[in-house]
Amino acid sequence: MPDLPPARDLPPGRLEQRRAHLVRELRGPARRRRWAVLLVPVALVLASGAVAATQLLGDEEVQDFFAVDCYARADLTARSVEVRTDPAAESGDRPGDRSAASLCGDAFRDGRLGRTRTPPQLDACVRGAEIVVFPGTCTALDLRRLPADWQGNARAATTMLTDVGTILQECESSAEATRAIAAELRERGFEEAPEIPEGVCGRLTRTQAINLLLALSVESGGTSKPGRVRPDRLRPHRRRPQACFARYGRLDDAPPGARCHLVPEAGDCPTSETADEVARGTLRRHGERRWRIITSPPPDDGKPRCYVSGTVDPGARTITLVATPLP
Amino acid sequence: MTETGLIEPTVASTHPEPEDFGELFERHARAIYGFCFRRTGNWATAEDLTSVVFLEAWRKRGSVDLVREPALPWLLGVANNVTRNHARSLRRHRTALGRVPVPPATPDFAEAADERLDDEERMRSIIECLRALPRREREVIELCTWAGQSYEAAARALDVPVGTVRSRLARGRARLQERSQHA
Prior knowledge:
The structure holds two protein chains of two kinds.
Chain A (H helix, E strand, L loop, with lengths): L13 H20 L15 H8 L10 E5 L8 E5 L5 E2 L2 E2 L4 H10 L12 E6 L2 E6 L8 E2 L4 H21 L3 H14 L18 H12 L26 H5 L10 E3 L13 H11 L6 E4 L9 E9 L4 E8 L2
Parallel strand pairs in A: 1-6, 9-11
Antiparallel strand pairs in A: 1-2, 3-4, 5-6, 5-7, 8-10, 10-11
Helix pairs in contact in A: 4-5, 4-6
Chain B lengths: L17 H23 L2 H17 L11 H14 L1 H7 L1 H5 L8 H24 L4 H12 L4 H8 L3 H21 L1
């Protein structure tokens, strides 16, 4: 084996430069975080316009909502590997729907986390904008647990950001972009949308467009990167079921798969036992007959759910009532 | 510098400020730079990784008592994790590294460029030889033999008992010796 090369200093001038850079970076996040403020359902104006927007934008990769860090021990300095679930992969009847803990279980079984091939009891937690999985429990490390619906929420957020990001790339004025994005979000059930600052339309790469939307739409959650979303904040924004009769006149004219509101009063919460009767009452009032009503079984998690809306299939003349969790 | 000499008033606070980390950087950058180079065989990558080690250390500062514990073994522990998958570490901090200013023109350094290229070539062949060892043994050799850390400091860096460091080091050396005899 050859001799070990001698120890060397950083090239001249670089120590000072790197030191200054480090101190700047460590001071920086709090200053930048100021811009990374709240929430898709809450309308937001980035008051300082394009200048501030460009400060927020990086060509850094868009946050990967599906990445998970698996640790060998309940210790943040322990050996770790990054795994990722493929949201498009088929697994049973739901695409890519594996829990973060089960993904890390594979890493143990493959030997990527040491000799222990039998996965211990694992808990998936949220640490800043990252999903981390440890043997033991999140509470032992003073972290919050990852919500069970993370995968679905991550998929919804990814699709929404990609679609709306396209508008930002192709728009010609901020007013046009604000209108188009608001319409797109309304279509998806959001009541409010961000206001797009001047000077960004048509000048953004896809990555920048998505990062801008993230920055305009989410809370930074205490992470050092603006626009990074905490996985437990990736809540699906409650869809407002479309008022089918107001929109389409007749259910026969609704497109297949339209989700229709079937509860007469706001705040009503039909259960699986009463849903059929409530839905039939609504249909009768609108002169709709000969529709078959199917009540989809609720997930077996014991949580109370309401049946406020259904998915319409005009061809088969069926409405499938869908269980939604109580607010 | 002795280990106790590393505990200096600049970081003698349970809540260090960015400037304290600047001081820590000045004191230990050379050691971390050398460690990262020996892991990667590339000086430029080692320079970026040195920055990443301190950025990561800042993030983890709550996990160490810099008043009572010497900083270098802890920093080497962070460096050990950062360099295990250095591509991922660099990717994570790509934005921050993108803000490092362009290096100033340095004629003196240009003269040393050949030496540095030789270093890299030599280091890469050493890394290749060392790949034959299990990672745990490789890590103690890197810390104790190359970085000159005591058994206690290496144990702290790797978060294992001192006895484990001794046995891994003995096994690693024996294995290397055996290989050199067969070569």
